[in-house]
Amino acid sequence: MVSTELPPAYCATSSNSPTPLYSECPAASERVLQTGHCQCLVGSSSSDPTKFVYKSDHFEVRLHPPRWGSRLPAYGLAGTVEGVLVFQKPCAHVQDVSVSLQGTITTSASQHASIAVPGIHKVTVLRKKIPLFTAEAGSTAPVSGEHPFALHFPHYVDGGMEPLPPSYTVYQPGVSTEVTYQLRVDVVRKGLRRHEKLTVPLLYLPKSRPVMAPLEDLPWSARVEGANDEQICSIPLTPTWPVRSDASNTQQLEDLPVITLTMPTSKCFASGDTIPLSLKIECPRSPALAKLLSYNAHLSLLKRQKAWVSLGRQVSVREHLLSRADAYLADDSQEGTAYLRLELQAGETGRECSWRVEGVVAVEHVIRLVIFPPEHVKNFPAYRCEVPVTLTTDQYGTLQSELTAMSGVPFPALGLSDPSRHLRASQPR
Known about the structure:
Blueprint: E1 41-42, E2 52-55, E3 59-63, E4 74-75, E5 80-109, E6 119-134, E7 141-152, E8 168-172, E9 175-189, E10 196-204, E11 232-236, E12 238-240, E13 258-264, E14 268-270, E15 274-282, H1 287-294, E16 297-309, E17 314-324, E18 326-331, E19 337-345, E20 355-357, E21 361-371, E22 382-392, H2 399-405
Parallel strand pairs: 4-10, 14-22
Antiparallel strand pairs: 1-2, 2-3, 3-5, 5-6, 5-7, 5-9, 8-9, 9-10, 11-13, 12-22, 13-15, 15-19, 16-17, 16-21, 18-19, 20-21, 21-22
């Protein structure tokens, strides 16, 4: 029987059609093309389809993490790298066989960068090594068979109390920064025989969560002001005068509006959630000015990616706008006072995380509020403030349910995986 279904119809596009807007993050229907060959070979056995296999001349490494859909083996918070080293043929004159877990932050600055001297700076944040075979002192031995191993990602960087950073890649004008992790196998042989090694790239994508339950709502009017004092904080905005204006000849300081931003005290939010804020503008001497200023309030969430270069003497900063707040007038019943409610989305769900390795690299998030003076008002200051906040990948209280569902295996934060990392694929070793 012949099918009567017709193929879908497509609209012809004109050469004058505008191109789509550029975005760093690919949409669900987009794919990142990879150059070169992939090192990862998925086991063909139907009984064990989840192993990653990496081969060398004498041996191969079989990793069997859960298959999360990523191209590389991915691990969550304090995850365990489990696998087995299999010698395909006997390897003679071996002194030592070891497996190590390594993490490195690499910052490179080109010679055209105005902020850095040329060079590449590397910082080791993780180095763990376990022996799989050691011959007797002064002797060698042949090695064959299978050697299982297990290495754990620690919570903190080596020699510090900062959380181990996730796998990360960012390219800035003249500066690039990468946080990479790898599993390395070393087979040391005696004499002039080749020291055989194999390096396996890994993704470390730890999830993070707020330590306190989120505040659902904020007080926004004089009738409820003062409630939940321990859970909210008020931040005064500082007036900033135009460069060429003389503040002594402008409006008296006591006549200036008093503007206060209110937000949860924790300043820690899950990515994708809505951040509740409120704004209070008091102008008792100019009642109409409060409402006029409320129309000029601009609040946004910024992501700052920092890299320290020139041996830590200078900082390269890249800012990216994540979202703008929806603001609306909540209450202006009191003369000379306006209350605004603002809602700011904390980026995309699961794709944001604040972290830093002091003096090397950092990902920060900042709420920026700017209130411009009305156009017809001369010699009047603008109001500005920036509030550092912490964003996490997941919501509060989801850890135990996730571990229960995954039988204790930490799920990686796949939203932190950067597609641009795969554009520079390494060749098989």
